Amino acid sequence: MKEYQNSFPKDFLWGSAIAASQSEGAFDIEGRGLSVADVATRYDKHASRAQRKFMDEQKLMAALEDTDNSHYPKRTGVDFYHRYQEDIALCAEMGFNVFRFSISWSRLFPNGWEETPNVAGLDFYRRVISEITAHGMEPLVTISHFDLPASLVTTYGGWKNRKLIDLYVHFASVLFAEFAPQVKYWLAFNEINGARFNVFYSTGVLADSSDNYLQDCYQAAHHQFVASALVTKKLHETRPDAMMGCMVAKFTTYPATCRPEDAIEAQSNEQVDNYYFTDTLVNGEYPYYAPRFWRENNIQLEITQEDEATLKAHPADYLAFSYYMSAVSSADKSALEMTEGNLKKGLKNPYLPASDWGWQIDPIGLRYTMNEMYSRYRVPLFIVENGLGADDRIQDGRVQDDYRIDYLRRHIQQMKEAIVDGVELLGYTTWSSFDIVSSGTSEMKKRYGFIYVDWDDEGKGTMQRMPKDSYYWYRQVLASNGENLADLPQPVTTHRN
Ligand code: BG6
Fold first, then answer.
1. Domain boundaries in the chain?
2. For each successive 10 residues of the chain (497 residues), what is the average pLDDT?
3. 131, 191, 265, 270: which is the annotated catalytic residue?
4. Annotated catalytic residue 385
5. Which helix (H) or strand (E) holds 141?
6. Contact 439 CB / ligand 1 (< 6 Å)
7. Is position 178 annotated as part of the catalytic site?
8. Number of C-beta neighbours around residue 308 at 10 A
């Protein structure tokens, strides 16, 4: 029987996370090929979701040919490619013992299909990983985070093509051969339910890909499932104690009222938004509700017996998730006001505040989510993203982001409650370590970091790094293994200029 635990485990992993396409920049040097992230233009928070996510062949080709990089902020990122040593050192000074980042597939394989990797790309990640481990941190590597090589879209139509499974497994095998000795924790795909909410950036499927777009999306997800299972197998063959996680963007959904119709609506949203993905990858088989969903949406998937055997034989070792907000469902669509959210729009919850981008802040929902997921799967959980996007400003030489401290404090408190409830949690990596380009809007203005980066939406600034107030606060939290969540006694005055 599990023992009662009233504090964070001694070996708890604390840190934060970034992604290659939002931070590295250097999109066209030393042999890197273009990726789907390099064609994302900037939108402000008023742009519609449909407008932001839409990508068809014409728009893609125009963007790939466009050499005006100022239209595509992820091409520049925040120059992690050249500043990784300083960035990693700053994180280490905060007391991290884990650092989550992703590998750019097109930096290693410019078109995605080459046999041998680009030496310069491999060498870059060798240096990054050595830097992380030299500072005593565990690297947590996401193999694919919204940056599929663009050639795999123009040539194969993205993940809807089965060919991508082999290409991805080859890419991952090169990573394992090189890095598995230093890297124990891996994630096959960032937010694998992106196939539902963030189709182009997650799977490379274009809006005009065929006359059955939805089928293409779910076929792409199926190929990612099989690829996940195959790389889990490969990783274990390379390093038996290494762990491959499946990761989702978790949208815990409450019914708008206690009307049974609303409860069914919320349950059904949970199934198709989250559990369709995690049930398949953690349980190793498609859930019982999948056939009805396929039938009612005119989806006919190509799933071989070998695919089914692969999924069954190689389930994920742990369940990772991003958590920013919760959602609300009602059977009556006109019942409540709508609000924005991470990847999907939803109904407004009258009991919750929201960020400036309309994401509803729900720390208690994190405890609820952790209990739901742990009781469903009984595999270790890992919170690999959680944070507040805000338009931080420097005033009197400081960024006084007490709102971020408040957000993180309240989530860490609930995370601890879930641990006391008995949930097994490996670690917590906030989003993000330092300010990076927003995934959804490509804005710099939407900042999540503990470290301010002097770069703006007009592409102006010095790129200098400067710790925010939250940096010193998180350092105190980590020094106490999550026990001291109090405000700092006084402002720290060692800021860089
Ligand atoms: C997650 C992604 O969905 O949310 C990250 O994994 C992303 O890449 C994060 O940055 C926050 O979203 P956004 O759109 O505010 O950057």
1. 13-479
2. 90 98 97 97 74 87 94 97 98 98 98 98 98 98 98 98 98 98 98 95 94 96 98 98 98 94 96 97 98 97 98 98 95 72 74 93 98 98 98 96 98 98 98 97 96 97 98 98 92 54
3. 191
4. yes
5. strand 138-144
6. yes
7. no
8. 14
Q: Tell me the C-alpha distance between 302 and 296, whole Å.
A: 17
Residue from 456, 452, 457, 461 nearest 395 by CA: 452
Torsion sign (Cα): 20, 24, 28, 29 = negative
Q: Is the CB of 339 under 6 A from ligand 1?
A: no
CA distance 193 to 379: 19
Question: How far apart are the C-alpha atoms of 409 and 251, rounded to whole Å?
Answer: 20
Q: How far is the CA of 489 from the centre of ligand 1 (A)?
A: 32
Tokens 């195959």, located at residue: 230
Helix/strand/coil for 399: coil
Which two structure tokens, joined as six digits, stand for 277? 């993905």
The 3-class SS string of 442-470 reads: CCCCCECCCEEECCCCCCCCCCCEEECHH
Q: Which tokens hold the place of 101?
A: 């980042």
Listed residue (98, 108, 247, 97) closest to 177, CA to CA: 108
How distant, in Å, are the alpha carbons of 223, 268, 273, 413 from that of 329? 29, 10, 12, 26
What letter represents residue 143's amino acid?
I
Residue type (1 letter), 33: G
Measuring from atom 15 of ligand 1, which residue has the nearest CA?
A: 438
User: Residue 252: CB within 6 Å of ligand 1?
Assistant: no
Distance (Å, whole) CA 178 – CA 282: 26
Domain 13-479 has CATH 3.90.780.10: no
Nearest-CA residue for atom 10 of ligand 1: 439
What is the distance between the alpha carbons of residues 76 and 38, in angstroms, rounded to a whole number?
A: 9
Determine whether the shortest distance from the Cβ of 191 to ligand 1 is under 6 A: yes
Q: How many helices (H) and strands (E) does the chain have?
A: 18, 14
Strand 451-453 with 465-467, pairing:
antiparallel
Q: CB of 442 closer than 6 A to ligand 1?
A: no
Q: In sequence order, which residues have a C-beta less than 8 Å from that of residue 208 and are 6 or more positions away?
A: 56, 57
Grouping H, G, I as helix, E, B as strand and the rest as coil, residue 358 is: coil
Q: Does residue 25's CB lie within 6 angstroms of at least one atom of ligand 1?
A: no
Please tell me the residue having the least CA distance from ligand 1 atom 14: 440
